[in-house]
């Protein structure tokens, strides 16, 4: 049975560092590069929350495909490594934890954008995943 590693990726350099770490640390694993599509994310240019239409969902999946292509563009993948991509819609930490619970994931490797303060060394997403996932979670800084 192959070891399956989930690598949540949001397009940040922190997530890319975690992806690179997973590739180096688990060269013969099945790696699932995962993006949680956050329907509640509002950017400064948005007038409000987006309408959750099929068109919106298609646009988000296309953006995730671009994110995955960018992530894969700069890495070297061992021939024994299998990389798959997947997305789900929802609050990122909750979506990541639910994905772990619903699939055959053995490990999560993720980046953290946390402030690095002694009383709060992890970002909120990483902290919630560490607390709630029922598999080992490696946070890469």
UniProtKB/TrEMBL annotation:
<feature type="domain" description="UspA">
    <location>
        <begin position="1"/>
        <end position="141"/>
    </location>
</feature>
<dbReference type="InterPro" id="IPR006016">
    <property type="entry name" value="UspA"/>
</dbReference>
<dbReference type="Pfam" id="PF00582">
    <property type="entry name" value="Usp"/>
</dbReference>
<dbReference type="InterPro" id="IPR006015">
    <property type="entry name" value="Universal_stress_UspA"/>
</dbReference>
<dbReference type="InterPro" id="IPR014729">
    <property type="entry name" value="Rossmann-like_a/b/a_fold"/>
</dbReference>
<protein>
    <submittedName>
        <fullName>UspA domain-containing protein</fullName>
    </submittedName>
</protein>
